[in-house]
Amino acid sequence: MRAKNGQTHYLSDDYHHIEIKYLKPGTRYFYECLFLRVNRLPPDILRKNETQQHRIGNNQIFSKSNESTFLTPPAPGQWYPPPLDRSIKFAVLGDLATRSQSRETVRHLEQNFLVVDCILLAGDISYANCNHFKWDTWMDMMGNHSFFQTIPMQVALGNHDLDWNIESEMGLAYEKRFHFLPYEFGNAFYSFTFGPSKHIVLSSYSSFRPGSVQYEWLLSELRSVDRTQIPWLLIMLHCPIYTTFKIHREEIFIKDAKLYLESIFVEYRVNFVISGHIHSYMRTVPTINDEPNPRGPVYIIQGNGGRQANEKYFNPKQAEEWVRVRDHAMYGYGTLELLNVTHARWKWVKTGFDSKEEWGLRGGFEPDFNVSDEELVTNQLFADEQ
User: Are 157 and 171 in contact (CB under 8 A)?
Assistant: First the structure.
């Protein structure tokens, strides 16, 4: 892979993808990683020099990680069994990068990771932009925190993850580092089930148009969800469908998504649509066709993870009627807690802001410390009963 420094070939430190089968749901497991030195000498010579306890077969164990742990999700349609017997909470963020504000967001996650079950990262992960050293810097930043070894993280593909200016390597660095199962379409789009919630991760940079591979796959995924068993349905994609901000409004990725996806999200009673891309924060009320409607999805822009938080509003004086909360000065992430079949709690967690000295060429805005966002959300499946 090429790097921006002119290096023709670039190799990161070794990274591996391991599939572990036959794990039980809702169960805590412990693990450590062993690093082996492959020996070519015959076994009888090797045994004269070192004890068997430092070997796996003929291979010498020369290093190993600290022991870590993870908790598997509940079975599909289930909640955590006793003794946990509790709600399920996701941390939601986007456009993280490796700036000082990025690190502050990550530190805040570290302080609160014991109450988070899974992290949803809506693209623009490292902002490598073909500089592959930045991918390693991002991995090092995350690897310094225990939650990265303990909590599952699911990511969507962002434009700054694509390495789009080298066509033969488009998305290659992303694909080498994130390998989600099932793998029919690479990492462009995929789905997973986490207890009572179904998550569909889409690619903003693959076609949404009817007849396309992604569109037909999405329909098959939506049709397969039994909402009597899986009451919560979440979509994650990098580019938003609804936005209160001025930037990116005319991008085809946004316009196509609204044109071709909104109606099927409404039809299948999608609960939340999570995005990044725009470096600010917004949450809508349940919305259909630009009007508040209790049957429609809640659209969230959580693009203020650390890269920037400074986008201009499209309507500076008055937010659109479907906007519940918006902000363009504070960094942070969100938490989505599934309380039961009928209700979830959304909360925006603020982690910092740029001083005027940090605004740079793109400018910035004074933070409004009175802005906050925490609300109980009713599952749209039950909107007709209200």
Answer: yes
- Predicted structure pTM score: 0.90
The model's pLDDT over 257-301, given as tens digits with 9 standing for 90+, comes to: 999 999 999 999 999 999 999 999 999 999 999 999 999 999 999
Q: Give the chain's mean pLDDT.
A: 87
Query: Residues in the chain, how many?
Result: 386
- Strands (E) across 166-255 are located at 184-187, 190-194, 197-201, 232-236
* 182 preceded by a cis bond (ω within 30 of 0): yes
> Is the confidence at residue 167, as pLDDT, over 70?
no
The CA–CA distances, whole Å, from 312 to 25, 329, 349 equal 45, 10, 21
Q: Which amino acid is at 255?
A: K
Residue 347: name the closest of 262, 272, 283, 264 by CA. Answer: 283
Question: 10, exposed or middle or buried, with CB in 10 Å at 0-12, 13-18, 19+?
Answer: middle
Report the 10 Å Cβ neighbour count for 325. 19
Mean pLDDT value of segment 21-30: 93
Tokens representing 192 are 């997973």
